[in-house]
Amino acid sequence: MLGKLIKYDLKSMSKAFVPMWILAPVIALLLSFSIRGTIAWANSSMMGRMMGAGNGILMVVMLLLFISAIIGLFVMTVVFVIQRFWNGLLKEEGYLMFTLPVKTWELIVSKALTATLISCMSILMGIFSGMILAVFSTEEVVRSLAVAWKYVLSSMIDVGPVFWINLILFIMLTILGTVGSIYHVYAAMAVGHLFQTHKVVGSCVAYIAMSVAVSIIGNIISTVMNIILPDNWSYYYWVGSSRNDAFSVMYLLYLILAEILQIIVMHVITERILSTKLNLE
Amino acid sequence: MGGMLIQCQDVWKSYGSQRALQGLSLQLESGRIVGLLGPNGSGKTTLIKILNGLLTPDQGMVLIDGQEPGTYTKSIISYLPDKPYFAGWMKVSDLFDLFEDFYADFDREKAGHMCKALQIDEKLRMKTLSKGTKEKVQLILVMSRRAKLYLLDEPIAGVDPAAREYILTTIVNNYNPEGTVLISTHLIADVERVLDEILFIRDGRVVRQELVDDVREREGKSVDELFREVFRTVPFEGGVW
Predict the structure, then answer these.
(1) B70: three-class secondary structure by DSSP
(2) CB distance A277–B56 less than 8 Å?
(3) What pairs with residue B79 in β-bridges?
């Protein structure tokens, strides 16, 4: 049943996102061409420089378009994550979802997985658009990128397995961090839903309260760790030293564990509230 | 108690300080068309939402086919809400797909036939449909299931008399005869002809439960007349019937 739910959630979200994912790189491409054009004109004759001024205006317009597309993409992602949960489960559409013969946790997990996928995809498309802009705008950028890429390739041979483990752990942490942020918003909305009136205000207050709680708990844990561990046992202390390998892996593992714990707690809060206190008035 | 499709025992529900159900108790058997009748604000919608799990009661026991509201009960209940619950992006056919995916008792072919009979294009998006057509689509979805329990919340409230006739006929012709249909409404004269049993609800309690034939035989009245009498002259009858 979870698979079927994900299918419908993906369908509903992709309707709005696919055009944005296509639009951002296309605008990046157009912008890079207009940058190229402006530079080319500026380096040519007097007449060319006048033409270049016109092209410059076009470039500014494209730049503004590009910036709005990127900002739009991220704002839309955040709004959609919130809206698909709020409208999809806690408003009228919830009548349909909560009368389907599925478990509450399946409804939540389906929403969370889809939202994570959409968020990661938006981030990737943002990065991709930036890369397109860089690669196509000027020869200089292309050349320096080529140099940098060569350097990366040559240094990859030297980095050894720890680098790759760290990279994989870091990517995992980023994805889990995204899941965690999504669940944080979900749990806040579930708590807000308990309020008789002012549910939106309640959700915002719950969000802030949970953030404070998470940071207090995080601080307590790190303080305790500082007391238990020796003084020089610090991530930054070891960075660049030969002994940092094991530490960086451990540190990333610790962060991943903390993130997973947070996700579990937020999921349980959301699931319990929607299972035992559901009130779709 | 055995063999009862719905059993509610001392169910309480409030919204803040406003009490919606106050110790409601009832039992309903299978194979009936039951009118859940009461004035506005008497607790009809609240009771229906508790039965299908959209609301959690503050107190009391609710069993449907012997089980508390959950995945099983949702699989045997076909619910017509009092307002449309669709996502605007969905086409009529998307909704049919969804119902087919999640409800084993959904008859896709029947839904298609009903759509054709009503001249509704399955390719249309929900947000482009008129209010009346949306309600028809919702009715098609609900009545194309072979459910054990149909919960129909005010199915005829917002429509003209001709459409009322059509909706009631659709319900009577399409429900699963082994199941029970619970129709909530305050338009008693319109539904009276299809009902087997009546439940009068007032201030969150069942004040009367009777077979329609008994009402006619014993009291020599129509349900509509009885309703007017009960809700005009008897302000309060306690939690029993």
Answers:
(1) coil
(2) yes
(3) B151
Domain assignment present for B108: no
CA-based torsion, A129, A130, A133, A139: positive or negative: negative
Map tokens 């959409």 to a residue.
Answer: A118
Rounded Cα distance, A114 and B90, in Å: 18
DSSP for A52-86, written as a single string: HHHHHHHHHHHHHHHHHHHHHHHHHHHHHHHHHHI
Site from B86, B102, B105 to mutate, A interface, most A CB atoms within 10 angstroms: B102
Residue B215, in any domain of the structure: yes
- Is A31 within 8 Å of A62 (Cβ atoms)? yes
List the Cα angle A92/A95/A100 in 5-degree steps. Answer: 145
Binned at pLDDT 50, 70 and 90, residue B233 comes out as low
- Is-contact A181 A259, C-beta < 8 A? no
Helix (H, G, I), strand (E, B) or coil at B197: strand
| pLDDT average, residue stretch B126-133 | 87
Q: Do B54 and A276 touch (CB under 8 A)?
A: no
Split into its structural domains, chain B has a count of: 1
ipTM: 0.89
Cβ contact (<8 Å) for B54 and A12? no
pTM given for the model: 0.87
Helix (H) / strand (E) element for A256: namely helix A244-276
Mean pLDDT of each 10-residue bin along chain A, 281 residues long? 92 84 89 79 68 73 87 91 92 92 96 94 91 79 79 74 84 94 96 91 95 92 78 53 66 90 96 92 80
Assess if residue B102 is contained within a domain. no
- What is the domain extent for residue B54? 6-85+148-233
Nearest CA in chain A to B15: A196
CB contact (8 A) between residue A279 and residue B85? no
| Chain B residue with Cα closest to A91 | B85
The alpha-carbon gap from A146 to the nearest alpha carbon of chain B, in Å, equals 45
With respect to residue B165, please indicate whether it lies within any of the assigned structural domains.
Answer: yes
Do residues B176 and B146 touch, judged by C-beta distance below 8 A? yes
Mutate to test the interface with B, among A5, A86, A98, A99 (most CBs of B within 10 A): A99
Picking from B82, B90, B94, B149 by the largest number of A CB atoms within 10 A of its own CB, the best residue to mutate is: B90
Residues 90..129 of B with a Cβ closer than 8 Å to A: which? 90, 94, 98, 101-103
Residue of A nearest to B98 (CA): A8
Give the CA diameter of chain A.
Answer: 75
Residue A14 forms contact with B (CB below 8 Å): no
Please check the confidence at residue B171 and state whether its pLDDT lies above 70.
Answer: yes
